[in-house]
Amino acid sequence: MIAINVALFGFALLDTGALLFLSIYILITLSDLDCDYLNPMQCCDKLSKWIIPELIAHGTNICLILLTNRWFLLIINFFMISYLIYCFYISKPKTSISFYDPSEIHVRGNLKSHIKISFIRMVFHLVHFFIYLYLFVVSLLTQS
């Protein structure tokens, strides 16, 4: 059982690290759009292809946490993935192509909203990275 915890937290650490770097990439890309280094079409093309992999990574994390009965981590991750599903699929306007729509990203402060959401996701992944790192080290120390 302890070896399963080591494997789980090792994978969760890698997965959350990848999601953290993805959140930083999204934040940098949106900041480049804000400073007019990118046009909206380039920015939205770059960001739209990362929606499904982010959801898959969160879903994999949730499934693995569910197997080890870490209920607090499961609830927090479940709220995050449900919020992402709400943002990416439910709350987007019907006329939009995807969550990052080039024709609507500068309308009504959408860009600032996207930057704020990306910053919150980055902080979420950063906190979870250190939580998983702590749990990984604890499970390694209790294994021996």
Automatic annotation (TrEMBL):
InterPro entries this protein is in? Cornichon
Q: Name one GO biological process term.
A: vesicle-mediated transport
Which coarse location class applies to the principal site listed for this UniProt protein?
membrane
Q: From the Swiss-Prot or TrEMBL record, state where the protein is found.
A: Membrane
* Chain ranges passing through the membrane: 7-28, 71-90, 122-141
Q: Which UniProt keywords apply?
A: Membrane, Transmembrane, Transmembrane helix
According to its record, what are the GO cellular component terms? membrane
Topology in the membrane?
Multi-pass membrane protein
Report the family membership: Belongs to the cornichon family.
Which protein is depicted?
A: Protein cornichon -like protein 4
Task: Record the organism.
Answer: Sarcoptes scabiei (Itch mite)
